[in-house]
Amino acid sequence: MNGWKARIDQALQQALSQNQKRQRVVCEIKPQSEMMVAGRSYLNFSSNDYLGLSQHPDLLQIAMEAMREHGIGSGGSGHVTGYSAPLASLEQDLATWLGYERAIVYPSGFTANQAIIKLLIAKGDRILADKLSHASIMEAAMLSLGELRRFKHNDPTSLQKLLSQSLLSEDAEQIVITEGVFSMDGDMAPLDALVNVIQDQALFMVDDAHGIGILGNQGRGTCDHFGIHPDILVVTFGKAAGCSGAAILLSAQLAEYFIQSSRPLIYSTAIPPMQAAILRASFTLIRGQIGDALRQKLRKNIHYFQNRMKDLLSEIPESHRLKSSLQLLPSDTPIQPLIIGESDDALKVADSLKQQGIWLSAIRPPTVPPKSARLRITITATHTAAMIDQLIAAFHQVLFDAEYL
């Protein structure tokens, strides 16, 4: 036991010394991009609730009705008693909307990604993943029986070189994995170019957690935006849909294989019928005129923020201590990362913004590469121009503090 304690103490001390210690803060989320922490109100620029649907009155009403009809739990695994009518209908809705034969709902996107890799990858198989793929993908790949190879971020040529290399055995298979929208940089994968490279050499999987509901016709996501149809598509419900959970979209054959053999599905409690009913209603909004209007408002807000932030950064003098590292990464999505550089500086800027009533979190290594600590600014449809102006004014006050000049 003493050995365990020493090992854990060392890991905790290392995280502390490198400014990598994570903390959870009790937050009370309010409508219209506001939140409360320790009794103080903040403007929320860190939320994944891109369309503001978590507070939509229609969905709140559906939640109350579904709770009265179905209760608050599913009562078991979907393989026992937990596969409710609302859940079955949700899966059918998603499959029809996104153009797949089947959809299978999982408790979370993390679980869904890990379930895919765990089930499909056998000894000798090769996983080709974008270098910046989500932690759930990388962790599962490293723990799998297969060989993990990472291609350069959004680089089809790098992928082509890996695809051309011989596999370990004649019966080995390959899978290519990428995200549709990358969660820390906000950029989109060049899915059409990747498909042209892959052709029939590998199975293709896209995790579109941050693209579904935001991009494409009716919010069908990044794949629809690029006009491609991967073999496996993962969509999550904690971003645009305003709830939680995830689904895997796939062929009927693959779906049957997952139902028979995916242990995270078989041995997990199914999502409650109430949650499935909320999600069905949420995706109905996303597909319809309300979703179109929210996406239009979101795009308008993103462009307004980008113009205001670029104007601010152009005012930073060459003598500014952060001048060489300050950079707004190019992104057409709600994720707008402002690179600060060092973890210490990112934490200081985030803390100073909180004093101005702006809630932003510093994203630091190891989540992002060294020297690229950042503020991950997320723009939503519920932000107003006045809120964005307040954000820029707070940044101006913080960045033009004497400490940095």
From TrEMBL:
Pfam families assigned to the protein according to its UniProt record, in alphabetical order: Aminotran_1_2
Query: Which top EC class is given?
Result: transferase
**Protein's UniProt name:** 8-amino-7-oxononanoate synthase
Q: Which PANTHER family match?
A: 8-AMINO-7-OXONONANOATE SYNTHASE, CLASS II AMINOTRANSFERASE/8-AMINO-7-OXONONANOATE SYNTHASE
Has keyword Transferase? Answer: yes
Matching entries from InterPro entries are given as: Aminotransferase_I/II_large, AON_synthase_class-II, PyrdxlP-dep_Trfase, PyrdxlP-dep_Trfase_major, PyrdxlP-dep_Trfase_small
Per the UniProt record, the source organism is: Ignatzschineria ureiclastica
Coiled-coil-forming residues are none
Extract the GO molecular function terms from the UniProt entry: 8-amino-7-oxononanoate synthase activity; pyridoxal phosphate binding
EC number(s) recorded for this UniProt protein: 2.3.1.47
List this protein's GO terms for biological process.
biotin biosynthetic process
Q: Does the keyword Transmembrane apply?
A: no
